Amino acid sequence: MISFDISQWRAWSPGLQTPADWHAWAQGAQQSQCDGPPPDVSFLPAMQRRRLSHLARMAFAVGWPLAEGQGALPLVFVSRHGETPRTFAMLSELAERQPLSPTQFSLSVHNAVIGLWSIMRGETSEMTALAAEQDGFEQGMIEAAALLAEGAPAVLLIVTEELPPEAYRPWIDDVPFSYALGLLLTPGQQWRLTPGQTSEQHGTELPHALSWLRASLTGQDTITHTVKRRVWTWQRQP
Fold first, then answer.
1. Could you report the per-residue pLDDT of 181-230, keeping only the tens digit for each?
2. Is 226 exposed, middle or buried (0-12, 13-18, 19+ CB in 10 A)?
3. Which of the residues 75, 158, 167, 193 could staple to 127 if both were Cys, CB 3.0 to 4.6 A apart?
């Protein structure tokens, strides 16, 4: 079991940008959209914004405001699928025997987002990029809790996925829409997360990060996520 406080949170999806939007979504009164304006990263200079993919923009849009005013802030970045549109575009260029852009290739790797974050914020704290199965959200929490246990006063966790290209969708079925969730974690007892095992396999309708957000915003105190035979139990303490 691990325990921690969630001091602040932010989330972004097309059509869902403010806390009020997400509260309406949690209640079923508002839905995300497949398309819409890109995430607002106007806090960055134009030259820096041009380097960011849509996935990176989502991560920066939720993470940057949470990091403001913090000192050294370790980051755990979680994405199961990563830069699928950018990778698909490069594979298409290879199929057409076109030369690849070295810049596009370097920005397609899984840890490119945390590299850009480090450069643009001048942040030298420990940073980790994780790619796990459907329970990457919980795996990221384990990593963040370890950093808190080592003495970090706060840890930023960002979970993000981008709607994949149409060609990938028969194989990527756990991204209903593009989304990003950022959590500022601090030491405490507000939440407890306990891993376990089960002999039965059950899934969740939404990705775990979104399932947790909906349950949290609707006041649920116990949330259970199952992947294969792994069970994760969330409990909010009174």
1. 999 999 999 999 999 988 676 667 789 999 999 999 999 999 999 988 89
2. buried
3. 75
Rg of the chain over Cα atoms, rounded to whole angstroms, equals: 18
Distance of alpha carbon 57 from alpha carbon 11, whole angstroms: 12
Is 225 within the bounds of a domain? no
Is residue 87 within 8 Å of 67, Cβ to Cβ?
Answer: no
Three-class SS of residue 171? Answer: coil
Interval 173-187: pLDDT, tens: 888 899 999 999 999
**What does DSSP say about strands 2-12 and 222-227: parallel, antiparallel, or unpaired?**
unpaired
Looking at the 3D structure of the chain, how many domains does it have?
1
Q: Is residue 220 part of a domain?
A: no
In angstroms, the CA 31 to CA 75 distance is 29
pTM for the whole structure:
0.91
Q: What CATH number is attached to the domain comprising 159? A: 3.40.47.10
Q: What is the Cα–Cα distance from 154 to 75, expressed in whole angstroms? A: 9
Residue at 232 is within a domain: no
Length of the chain: 238
